[in-house]
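Sat 14:20. Reprocessing the chain from the morning session after the first attempt stalled halfway. Input below, unchanged.
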Amino acid sequence: MCDVCNLEGKDWKFHNYPRITINQAKFYRVYLGQVAKVKLCHLHTIENFLIGESRFLKEHLSLAVDMGRNRNNYTQSSEGENYVPASVWF
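Finished this time. Tokens:
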């Protein structure tokens, strides 16, 4: 189930029919040194892509509050297989 739809009390299958797949999005600016994984439906995946991570969280405050309260449900170590330290970028 989509985390945003679940928190906002929406029927995600109804809103996304016929694309009832769940995508896993990664938020990099929520926690310092960690990546937050969020399950998003098709429509919320597109919205996140179009407006960006910061504005997406401003539009969906219930997700931002839940991410603050239940940090362990969303986090993983950022030093995973695709992690590139910021010092390498420059």
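The chain has seven helices and three strands.
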